[in-house]
């Protein structure tokens, strides 16, 4: 487990800024404890600094994971934000989309959201902006990219895609089913 390099940190914050914008500073500057990002086995973890110090005593091959999994580094050195980062994204997201109950299950199966399933959208959401996805009970269920801006959503047809799916809480179940 090691600290992120400057390039890795920049790349991670650029990815996170797609969803939470300038609120990325809140991930590092927290009042409760000092939090850090660490790289372990091509995964970026977010944890309290005290926990990182304790984990340094564990052998690398014995350490499975620690803290909150934020991103995975691919073999091409790209970062992919994981669904386990949903709590942080939902908490600090600048733009949000709420999904109607009839399309919630479809989204949890990995499908895009159409205009017919759109409950609400944050005002002034730009096109291709990263957004947090909530159900109508304000429970975060995933995140994605807005295929249409707020104004375009009001004018488009009901079968037009308004959100491109990126990750959802149903991934755990789909991955488990694939593994067995």
Automatic annotation (TrEMBL):
Q: Enumerate the CDD domains for this protein.
A: Nip7_N_euk (cd21146), PUA_Nip7-like (cd21151)
Report keywords, A-Z. Nucleus, Ribosome biogenesis, RNA-binding
| GO CC terms | nucleolus
Compartments where found: Nucleus, Nucleolus
List, for all copies, the residue spans of the domain called PUA: 95-170
Checking SMART domains in the record gives: PUA
Q: Which domain of life is it from?
A: Eukaryota
Major site of localization recorded for this protein: nucleus
Q: Which GO terms describe its molecular function?
A: RNA binding
Q: Which residue ranges run through the membrane?
A: none
Q: Does the keyword Nucleus apply?
A: yes
Whether Amino-acid biosynthesis counts among this entry's keywords is no
Assembly: Interacts with pre-ribosome complex.
**Role:** Required for proper 27S pre-rRNA processing and 60S ribosome subunit assembly.
Q: Per the similarity annotation, which family is this? A: Belongs to the NIP7 family.
Q: What is this protein called?
A: 60S ribosome subunit biogenesis protein NIP7 homolog
This protein's species is Bodo saltans (Flagellated protozoan)
